[in-house]
Amino acid sequence: MNERKLKQLNIVVIMAILVGLIFILLFVLVFSPEGQNRITGDSITDFNDGWILKSFEGANDEIINLPVKINADESEIIVLMHMVPYDVNGNTAIAFKTEFQNVRVMLGEETIYTNGVMNDQKLIKNAVPGYNIVEIGNASPGEIITIYLTSAYKKYSGNIPSVYYGTKSDIIFNIINNNVISLVLAISLMATAFLLTVSLIIMKNKEVDKQKALYAFGFIFATALWSLLSNPIMQLITRNLFGIYMAGMVVMLLLPVIYIMYQRCFALKRRYAKIFEIGIYIYAINFLTGSIFQMFNVCDFATYVSITKVFIMIGLLLLSGLMYLAADAYEDKMIYSNLVANTILLVTLIIEAILSLFKFYKKYDGLILEVGLYIFLILMVIIVQRDIINEVNSKKEEAINNLEQKKEKIVKDINTNLVFKALNEAISSLKNDKDNSRLIYNTSVYLKDNIKAATESGLVPWKEELTYIKSYLEMEKRINKGLTIEIEDKVDNFMIPYGSVELLVENALRNGALKSTGTPRLIIRIYERLDCFAIQIVDNGKGIGPDKKFDGTVPYKTIKKRLKTLCKAGIEIRNKDGKGTIITIKVPKEGFIIKED
């Protein structure tokens, strides 16, 4: 994607999000319909039997039991009447859940509760789904309680819900008990997405595609927020049923914009990218259109969002097909993972839509969608985190390979043949000076093995590694007069990582023997045990092992890891203050395992 096009798409998404935030703040903090339910506060009792369905057309009143669905037209008023229970007290309340229905409750001739009543205020005309909690503690037993229900939607006209009563605290506890799991999941996912976003922003690793990950975490956060705003417990906490619902609708209209922008990040070929870009513009326009329609009373959110849900399902279906083609074209595991998550969400939506047509599913309405949604979001978190880790590891491997190539190039650029010829010539000219010719020989062997170590990282016979070590120690003996070296090589028929033991010997000499208060002494023992071949490095220094202080070009942890990885060897370190350090490298025989200290 060229920079100009990317900036345009980012601006579209950012503008949609900003407008959405404005609407959320307006609905939650500013607007409050007249008569809006303000929820304030385990035993509850069903209050479903013996309700009188009042008729205004001259027909006889009818006694019904709740819940029930009756034939009713749009905006037709349904009147239900019942006597107040005889066991009411000062804390008693009745509760029932309505969908897109306007509610008025009267006690005798007095209106004690209204919710979602149509009024002329812009932006807040339509009723919303939610619990109605009506206090009747001041009622006298036997007094008549009347409930008026009406809906501007044919689908919800005539839906009369279950009614129950109890203390307000019991009713609230019941609502919380039924919805707490989804609340905790939503908050957990929001917190996870937020923390991952913050960590991503402050991450200094430039190799990670932060834009892709930020859109993913933003989508996860927004989806979890939508689920949170849809939770009845939020109505209890905020005491603004209408505002919370409308804010949730704004978030839902925004979700496709963010999600498609996230998927757009995977489209490397222009023909695929173009389709995603069209989708982003379409859903951004859909969001803005819905907001404008709600503002000017052209079409309220309840109606608009029901149409948008179908629109979203169609979009997900097309997106799954597109992702399948892209995954096949790119052979990208990340796209396949996204395809699986997207398919799970799509199947969940289809199953939910089918089950909602049956009466038996009415009391479980939304359960399948909720479960599928959380599975989808959890998969999204895993997918994005795995992608970030893979990107970091890929770049790390690339950097290591580049470094190795540079090392090899540097070594190849050195005219080693010339160097060794010159050293051999020097040795030949010092035939009568055995000490200096030996020093030059050891230097040439040490230099040769160092160059080899820079380009090789596999295993070598211990005999070859020991030759390297001996050359190094001979050079040290020449430089450090009085240094005593003892080597007890009883066995050599095993393999060791190239150059690893020499580094430990070098450290034992520098930080151990040469810092001894007496005559510096270093002992190397190689012997065979029942389960392993052992290499023991003993110095008479102050007792500082390499795990506490290591002076070398390669870190001690790297050496330990190389030994463990390449030949499953372990290192044992024994320190005695003032008496030296014993380092034992144990190379296991076939069929044996060396346990870590």
What does this molecule look like?
This protein has 597 residues and is of the alpha+beta class. The protein folds into three domains: 3-34 and 178-390, no CATH class; 44-170, Jelly Rolls (Sandwich); 483-588, 2-Layer Sandwich (Heat Shock Protein 90). The protein has helices at 3-30, 168-202, 210-229, 232-238, 241-264, 270-295, 301-330, 333-355, 367-413, 416-429, 434-455, 462-479, 500-511, 556-567, and strands at 44-46, 51-54, 62-64, 68-69, 78-83, 92-98, 102-107, 110-115, 130-135, 144-150, 159-160, 164-167, 459-461, 484-489, 495-497, 521-528, 532-539, 570-576, 580-588. Strands 3-2-5-10-7-8 form a six-stranded antiparallel beta sheet, with no helix packed on it. A five-stranded mixed beta sheet has the order 14-16-17-19-18. The longest helix is centred in the middle third of the chain and has 47 residues, at 367-413. The radius of gyration is 39 Å and the shape is elongated.
Distance between the termini: 54 Å
Main β sheet profile: 6 strands, antiparallel
Structural class: alpha+beta
Tell me the number of strands: 19
Strand order of the largest sheet: 3-2-5-10-7-8
Offer a concise description of the structure.
The chain has three domains: 3-34 and 178-390, no CATH class; 44-170, Galactose-binding domain-like (Jelly Rolls, Sandwich); 483-588, Histidine kinase-like ATPase, C-terminal domain (Heat Shock Protein 90), CATH 3.30.565.10. It contains 14 helices and 19 strands. The protein has helices at 3-30, 168-202, 210-229, 232-238, 241-264, 270-295, 301-330, 333-355, 367-413, 416-429, 434-455, 462-479, 500-511, 556-567; strands at residues 44-46, 51-54, 62-64, 68-69, 78-83, 92-98, 102-107, 110-115, 130-135, 144-150, 159-160, 164-167, 459-461, 484-489, 495-497, 521-528, 532-539, 570-576, 580-588.
